[in-house]
Amino acid sequence: MTEELVDRAPRVRCHECGSDRVFAVCHHCQRPMCDHHSPLAYRQGGTLVRMPGGSAEEARPASKELAGLHLGGLREAVYHCKDHVHMVRGSLMPWVYAGAGAAVLGLLLLCVAAKFGLFLILTGGLVGGGAWLLGRAMATRIVRPPLPLVPQVNTVELLERLSGYVRLEDGEYTSTVESLTGQLTAEMSANEGHAALRAYRRKFGVPAAEPVPFSGGYLMLQGDVGLAFRAGQAPVLSGGTGVSIGGESADEHELFPADPQLPQRESTLAIDYEVQDRRSPREIPLWIVPSLVPASDRRALEIDLHWNRLGPEREQRLSLAVFDLIELEVPASWGTVESSAPGQVAIGRSGGRRTIRWKQLPPPQPGARSLTLQLRFERPITEVPESTDPDDDGSRSRLTLSGKVEATFEGLLSGVTGVGVYLPGGGPGHSPLPKTQTKVAVTFDASLRSIRYQDDRVVPDENHESDLAQGRHRADEFHGVLPDSRTVAELTNAISSDGYYVKSVVEHPPFRDDVRMGVVNRVWDIAGRMYVGLFPMDFDINLRGDEMAVQDGFTGNTVVQVTVKGAYAKGTLVDSRESSDTTGAVMDLADATVETDLQGDELLRRIEDTWVSLHTRVTDLLAARAERTVRRHALPGAAEKIHHGELVDTVPEHVVRADPMPAVSATAVPMQTGSMPTASMPTVPVPAAPVPVAPVPVAPNGGPAPGDRRAELVRQREAADDAVINGRINEDTHGRIVARIESELSRLEASR
């Protein structure tokens, strides 16, 4: 089994149990302690308590180590770990004063009561002198603490900066991380600093000329501390997970104003650090993808900014807050910027380059991962020769499109989530909400040879000679095919099985022809897409036609037109002039050459081939459907007397017809002669074996008998009722069918 050592980020934890819920720190060694392992620092009612009740100013610390320095209340409490635990009692000077008072009173009473006065003198001398000697002895053993000062920590900010470089050249996208650093900044203010300094000198007998070190508390990092403070910064605590607020001399610090009359002074604490290598990204999380807008006459540039969330895996990722700056530098020979999106843009010019800047652009929507910039120029966008960047050391050449992007992400790559503030005595203080952000700054260069100009090819195109020569612009018509849902369903199933992705099928509202009675016009649009590798090609099939009511049901004709659209590269327009000649002069297209793109030529061929294959598939299917219709329902007879029509086997969702004529395999024999004229007498298929055929009743005018026609209309009415009940037709269609049937029944009744 292979074992791997993983460098984990440390956390501020209790030195006893390892809990990351730190309550206090030892004010001697700054060891963190949880609530359970912190000492009871207050005394209330003769009992040690963790936090006193009542007013904070009335709190009584258990230790008098910081007493008498005008801190007041909770600020005087001190916390010690087990290695530094001690108790500082109150001053013995009251006992010295009491002894001196007793001795003076004894002297006054010597004349009145000599024995009692002598007793007071001896007792006062012993008590006062002993207290003074004991105080001197204790003072020699106690280490004098730094001057405690409690500043107001107004703001805490942790800012990390990630910088890098991106280059798009010769089809390769190179992303390089250059540096990742951070800084902790705390803004503080304090008042009455000189009053505390004077009290400190009096308490500990410090001469005015001697410097007094002071402590303003501690800042302890919260969360994963995946960083290392730079060496040589005195305020950093041992262990590297916190910093100390303080200094070697209060007299020289800005929290103690030189003018004692000033009520308040402000100070800024700034500590630099490096982020752990494991937490540094291997590549810049911003992708800059420029492209030329298709069918824009090479004048429109589109830049897509894509980004990922920052941070190590299996941890909370950082989300983009805002683009602070997006700056583009383009050749001045492209002309002025005619339009831009988004609209808030500043445009300038320097050294033959045009500068375009956007500031404070938020993401398009919460959770978005991309932002699109669009620019349209006065003249065509051309590739220009490489040049030297004046701001660079010469190791990089500046390409046609260059610039920089600065973005802000919420959170820190180091893993720090907050900062805890602790008082000089080690107790918890007021912790402001910290500001944690990561700034990403990227400079980039891009060559137009890597962003081919794309154009759209639409087949058929009435302006394209090849399409006109091959007749691709003409629609195909199929007689006998109904433009109904069954035809559309068969068509979509067929092209889907061939690998075409059908995105939508739309039926436009049908309408009745005002000129031709019984004719309904229907229109369908089938839209979809097919991929050639990673390149999409969109297609549209427009199917339209007429649906006509006949005696035996419905027939019609269908017209279909296939359109395919795709994008292909046309090559790069290169300015052949020297770089010194492209500093803004209007370019003559005669000075430019187009570099061919073999991949673009292949895509153009594939677009046309896609139209051919899809058109063949659609027309073959509809032709087969028309052939089936003719073969199924044609009545054999004389060649000039064959009638074509369509009677589908099952009733479509929007069609109701009479019962179909049963299909039989037969040879053609003449019908019995009767009242029907010989010239119009058709042949009827009958079985090959002799089968008796009943005479067909006919009306005097040669049509069917009124009784048979009436029965047929009744069957049609019942079929229409069943269709609307089962949802195969809507109520409007049912109403039109019923009205036609009732009208014909009325005519039959009138002719009886």
What attributes characterize this protein structure?
752 residues; single chain; nine-stranded mixed beta sheet; alpha+beta
Explain what this protein looks like in three dimensions.
With about 750 residues, the protein is an alpha+beta fold. The protein is built from 8 helices and 34 strands. The strands form 9 sheets. The protein has a 9-stranded mixed β-sheet with strand order 9-11-7-6-23-21-14-17-16, with no helix packed on it. Strands 24, 25, 26, 27, 28, 29 and 30 form a 7-stranded antiparallel β-sheet that branches. Strands 5, 8, 10 and 22 form a 4-stranded mixed β-sheet that branches. Strand 6 and strand 7 form a beta hairpin. Helix 1 packs antiparallel against helix 2. The chain is elongated. The termini are far apart.
The biggest beta sheet is recorded as: 9 strands, mixed
Shape: elongated
Mean pLDDT equals 77
Radius of gyration, whole Å: 48 Å
Strand order of the largest sheet: 9-11-7-6-23-21-14-17-16
